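Why do we bother with a discrete structure alphabet at all? Because it lets us treat a fold like text: something you can write down, compare, and reason about line by line. To make this less abstract, here is a complete entry for NADPH:quinone reductase. Read it the way you would read a sentence in a foreign language you are learning: slowly, and without expecting to understand everything at once.
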Amino acid sequence: MGQATTPETMRAISQNIAGAPDVLKLVDTQRPVPARGEILVRVHAAGVNPADWKTRERGVFANGATPPFTLGFDVAGVVEAVGDGVTLFQAGDEVFGMPRFPHPAGAYAEYVAAPARHFALRPQGLTHIQAGALPLASLTAWQALVDTANVRPGQHVLIHAAAGGVGHLAVQIAKARGAYVIGTATASKHELLRSLGADELIDYRTQDYAESLRDVDVALDPLGGPNWARSLRTLRPGGTLVSILPPDDTFPAEEAGVRAVFMLVEPDHAGLREIASLVEDGRLRVVVDQVFPLEEAARAHTLGETGRTTGKIVLTVAP
């Protein structure tokens, strides 16, 4: 199951207390061992997501895990070893995935052990860095638009924060489904979004989308708060709003004749394979804003918390 050349310890980013980015420290810790049904992945790149810095600041995972812990859900790397019963992968396979979400996965580390079916083969043509940027954001967009809203050709789909990590991938997935795509983003990001397939763009700083848009079939809201109720106003009767944050429940969606749902992304081998197919067909590309070495995870979090990035931030772990 293991290999003699695999070290018993590894570098990882750990935090002992809740707080600002400077609580993230580089440590040496025990390398995990894959259990039955798991694979051991040597991590080459780990995506950075809002879930990471929110968990760091709160100091607790969704399952109640408290420090010390290692953050990170997005993994791209190479299978080092497989646990008993695994037939999906073998040592040497290049994989990407979002293991264990929303429970700790420990992706900010040199090795991750997790269930085999929380991964898929890395899309051909992508680097580890690009693949490390994909899993959580692309699965969120896929599960929201395809599994939850069942976006169909010709539908009008509104994507908020369209240049963000989830948003820029959602624009492309909706377009691949044949939708007419409307995105909200600052004007400086409109050219990029047009290149990704957006049909109509709104600068939310100068235009009130809630007043100008009507008869939207599906809206995807990664922002939450007041944006939730305002997005509902744009929907046609029978339309669907998918929020990836717990929504404000003061708007009577059912009485207004629309559907509003909160969706939490899940590990999804089948979804990852669909995403890989879109990448390999040239219909989905991931935008990487900045790349930091593992030991600079705190800097990556500081940048992410500005809310001004385009696409994703990625940590490089192994060369």
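What the structure line is telling us, in plain words: The longest helix spans residues 135-148. The domain at 9-134+286-316 is CATH 3.90.180.10 (Quinone Oxidoreductase; Chain A, domain 1).
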